[in-house]
């Protein structure tokens, strides 16, 4: 038994700063400083070939330690949203599985992502409100930031002439219940690199944590400048 | 005598980063970076079963050291606001007891809180001005952040369908004089997780420092987005 | 000669983090993070009984080292603005005396200050533009922050019922030429705790560096909230 | 061969924090915290007498290590934008040359700069939108910040009475294609200390990294305050 526990702990114990358990702790602290994950919400999960590393629910994201990380086998049969998944490791502390797990899983199964990030950035929330009727945030001609985003989140990068489009789905009382509408939106808009959730935040994914993170930065930048432009009366999409 | 002094110092001396005296120092520095406690105001106090740890008044909150912390026995008979309380330890330096002490005490006696935070966040102050007539800040449908707040600050978390309401009380020339009106508001609005003070800031509490801190983050986030929405002409409360 | 140089260096060499040469370096880096001293401008000087410590002109304020600090004897005969002062130590590097020196000196001679801070905070500059006609920034009823400011910068603290008033003087092509108008404003408004300079920034002083710093924080907070209120159409001064 | 590789690595290996390879890593991390280089874009390059140090393209700018730096000989025959340049060192990792290289080169050849910085600061982008018709950002009477900018980026500093003018050039699908229009603008406006790119960002240069950095800070400050003034209905240029 103690051997088995030691084996479980070994999954999140490493001196390599690039080990997923170390990265999640470091990146969540950095996201906290960006205002993306205050109040315990939001975070990042990382998938390797056969494992998913994920931070717990309801904890202070700037204070995560590698020992807090859950590890799940991948792939595994798609459970219904409210069913417990299979775990390779659960933290010994009384920590809860993240309610984002089914949403992160969408990114893995629908887009074969290696990492998925969820933020409550106020730029994202303001954009969902200012583009609520259109159900789609759109911006064009922002060189470099648009080119920093990949088609579908995992394809080639958008070109300068592309209009970036991020669908906005409705919010639900429970985060798990977003799973189906997020999946639908991902399938309906295969070019979308992220999904905005009304009055809530954004989900962004990538082939690995670096791509997920830099795409989240690009999208957040575009949401921020888009909100500023809209409030200043400037159009965010130009007709050629 | 020197033995007794050593015993007093032992109350705030620990190598454990989670000891209240160490936590208060660290958290106040972090609140300074968030803009919550500039100019010496604001802070956090922590209560254990039988002791209250509290930072001094009028000091730079990002430079507090454990040796600056006051320690009071808990419970103790409710003194009138301007009466000195009983202390287990006073810092040797010429430091003054925090004027927030009676307000923090409200959170302990009325809500059985284990920690209370006071900020001068500009989000809180702007909200008190923009909702001054209503004497109540209200926001709804902000998933996750509303669910990060507990009913009364110490109960179960609000549901997604709840409208968050934070009462706004009038300011007074002396902080101590807020004690009664804060207590009244806490009793009149038992579901409120914090009390806003007009042109001044906010008080938030929780069962322990983690809950007090994460609820303060959620409320500050909601105040910030609420102010942005109001200034952009968007309603913060939706009719179902 | 080398002995004399060593003696000069000894003036800025100390392992005590509270030595003025160490403090100036640390505080300027912290002011840089607050956006007060970007682009080499702004800074803090500290006066002891018989010495003034001052950072050089035109250097990156977040990269100051104690060896960069100038030391001047105090008091010394008031030179005309463009006359070289007497120095106890000049840095060996080819560094220029701060153009703020005559302004800082005003705070020493007119208010007997022990420290003076100059920032280019955008809150200060925006306030000078929005209150340009009145030549006076005014705000009332902001409890705690107003009470964190001292009458004249070195007297008792303002009361909650006081209206904070900060005079705005005109800008001049050369910073040294502000000396006389700043001095005049300090004499005309003996209760003012700082002097705003149109399209430029603010000077704030205090009995020591702690008081100068916390008063600068309180004033900057009040300038920031004042600008927000004005732009939102809210009055910053209430009639009782 | 391994000797030659060692020689190449020696170009970016130094314990001196002021070595260009160390500086670029440190400064990019600092620019990330300022919001200038999120999402892998932007950065700084440094030129010594005979070498140019430049960060790779498409990497997280806050995580650059000296071993990631490219080194090029200087001068070298001006290649057409899409032709590979000659390198003294390429990082062993699979990293791409920065698309900014031809733009940075403009600063070296047209202005004899020792360093050039490119940011995607939202202040710069908003200014290009609000001054889009004029194709020129203009601001006057902002003492200190205007005086912190050098005529042409490498001449004497502007005087207080000068109006700062920064040309805005059109964006292009590929960053390399900005080379000619940036060069033209630099020649047409020899007094300009930087070039804004519509919906994209700014290029700023200086005799060395310190001057490039402090001028970028001054320009970014002026762009930020200019945008705030314009949105508040205040003129940024005064008639004397």
TrEMBL record, chains A, B, C, D:
Cofactor: Zn(2+)
Keyword Zinc attached: yes
Domain Class II aldolase/adducin N-terminal: 22-227
Pathway membership: Amino-acid biosynthesis; L-methionine biosynthesis via salvage pathway; L-methionine from S-methyl-5-thio-alpha-D-ribose 1-phosphate: step 2/6
Record GO terms (molecular function): methylthioribulose 1-phosphate dehydratase activity; zinc ion binding
Keyword field contains Transport: no
GO terms under cellular component: cytoplasm
Domain of life where this protein originates: Eukaryota
Annotated EC: 4.2.1.109
One Pfam family per UniProt: Aldolase_II
Stored SMART domains: Aldolase_II (SM01007)
Binding site for Zn(2+): 118, 120, 200
Classification via InterPro entries: Aldolase_II/adducin_N, Aldolase_II/adducin_N_sf, MethylthioRu-1-P_deHdtase_MtnB, Salvage_MtnB_euk
GO BP annotations listed: L-methionine salvage from methylthioadenosine
Enzyme class: lyase
Cofactor note: Binds 1 zinc ion per subunit.
Function: Catalyzes the dehydration of methylthioribulose-1-phosphate (MTRu-1-P) into 2,3-diketo-5-methylthiopentyl-1-phosphate (DK-MTP-1-P).
NCBIfam families registered for this protein in UniProt: salvage_mtnB (TIGR03328)
Protein name (Swiss-Prot/TrEMBL): Methylthioribulose-1-phosphate dehydratase
UniProt source species: Suillus discolor
């Amino acid at each position: 038994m103690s051997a088995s526990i030691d084996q479980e702990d070994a999954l999140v114990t490493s001196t390599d700063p690039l080990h997923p358990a170390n990265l999640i702790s470091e990146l969540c602290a950095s996201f906290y400083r960006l205002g993306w994950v205050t109040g315990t919400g939001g975070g990042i999960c990382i998938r390797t070939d056969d494992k998913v590393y994920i931070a717990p629910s309801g904890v202070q994201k700037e204070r995560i330690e590698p020992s807090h990380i859950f590890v799940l086998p991948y792939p595994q049969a798609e459970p219904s949203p409210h069913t417990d998944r299979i775990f390779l490791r659960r933290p010994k502390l009384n920590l809860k599985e993240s309610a984002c797990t089914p949403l992160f899983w969408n990114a893995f199964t629908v887009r074969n992502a290696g990492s998925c990030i969820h933020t409550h950035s106020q730029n994202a929330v303001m954009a969902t409100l200012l583009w609520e009727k259109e159900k789609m945030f759109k911006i064009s001609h922002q060189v470099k930031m648009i080119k920093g985003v990949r088609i579908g989140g995992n394809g080639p990068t958008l070109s300068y002439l592309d209009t970036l489009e991020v669908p906005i789905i409705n919010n639900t009382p429970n985060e798990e219940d977003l799973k189906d509408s997020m999946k639908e939106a991902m399938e309906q808009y295969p070019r979308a690199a992220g999904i905005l959730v009304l009055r809530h935040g954004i989900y962004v994914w990538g082939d690995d944590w670096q791509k997920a993170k830099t795409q989240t930065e690009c999208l957040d930048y575009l949401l921020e400048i888009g909100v500023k432009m809209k409030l200043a009366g400037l159009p965010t999409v130009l007709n050629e």
